[in-house]
Amino acid sequence: MRVYGKKPVFVFDPADRSNRLPNDPAYTTARRRWELCPPSLQKLFTQAFGAGLNEPARRVTEGEWQGLFLQLKDGAVACPSCQAENLWEPALISLSCWHCKHSIALPPRLVVSHAAGKHNVLLVKGARLRRRHFEPHAADGETEIGQVVQHPTDPQILGHQEPDRGAMARLVAGRDAERICATKVRAVERRD
Ligand SMILES: [Zn+2]
User: Fold this and answer.
1) Do 174 and 122 belong to one domain?
2) What's residue 183's pLDDT?
3) Which of 77, 81, 139, 181 keeps 20 to 30 A from 56, CA to CA?
4) How many CA within 13 A on the CB side of residue 110?
5) Ligand 1 centre from 96 Cα, in Å?
6) What is the residue range of 130's domain?
């Protein structure tokens, strides 16, 4: 009898293909879901269940998992054709819907630089700006400090609205964007 777990091999390990999924329809869903994972997520999985299995120093840290998933969460965008949720990540310069294959026009994004690195927030309508976007280690990181809204008469103009305030600060590159938070906002990339 073979005791599984003695020599675990990740089924999608690109370096060791000894345990790759058999070409059986029963595994189609697993293969399909792996293909749909953003490259950054595939990379961490491969590291965690590849080299990280036997080399503790190469294991993925809790902070790395958390940073990746928060970035994916802030890069979620609904397909305008079928409404399926898609995951964008900073390395992607274009995005096609995983469900209906239509091209998705990427909205502008807020790029925040801080000591822990860069964080991108896609400025989709209704997106929440939270304290963690500017202060990654804040205890109240999920606290909302503003919401992305559309201009009442020109939906192409996006703004930032603070809770309990009627005024809208237009999101533009440079000085105005920095008003969102004392922490430096590197840039707001706008749709032209
Ligand atoms: Zn779609």
Assistant:
1) yes
2) 34
3) 139
4) 31
5) 8
6) 107-192
pLDDT tens by residue, 33-46: 999 999 999 999 99
Q: Taking residues 13-25, report their average pLDDT.
A: 90
Q: What single letter denotes the amino acid at residue 178?
A: E
188 and 136 in a common domain: yes
129 and 74 both lie in a single domain: no
Q: Of 106, 123, 139, at which residue does a domain stop?
A: 106
CA max distance for the chain: 70
117 and 102 belong to one structural domain? no
Could you tell me if 116 and 189 lie in one domain? yes
Task: For residues 168-192, give the mean pLDDT.
Answer: 42
How many angstroms is it from 39 CA to the middle of ligand 1? 19
Tell me whether residue 1 is in a domain: no
Q: Is the pLDDT at 3 greater than 90, yes or no? A: no
Per-residue pLDDT at 181: 40
Q: How many domains does the chain have?
A: 2
Following DSSP, what letter does each residue of 42-90 receive, concatenated?
HHHHHHHHTHHHH-GGGSPPHHHHHHHHHHHHTTEEE-TTT--EEE--T
Residue 35 structure tokens: 């293909």
Please give the Cα distance from 167 to 181 (Å, whole number): 16
- Ligand 1 centroid–CA 98 distance in Å is 7
| Stated pTM of the model | 0.78
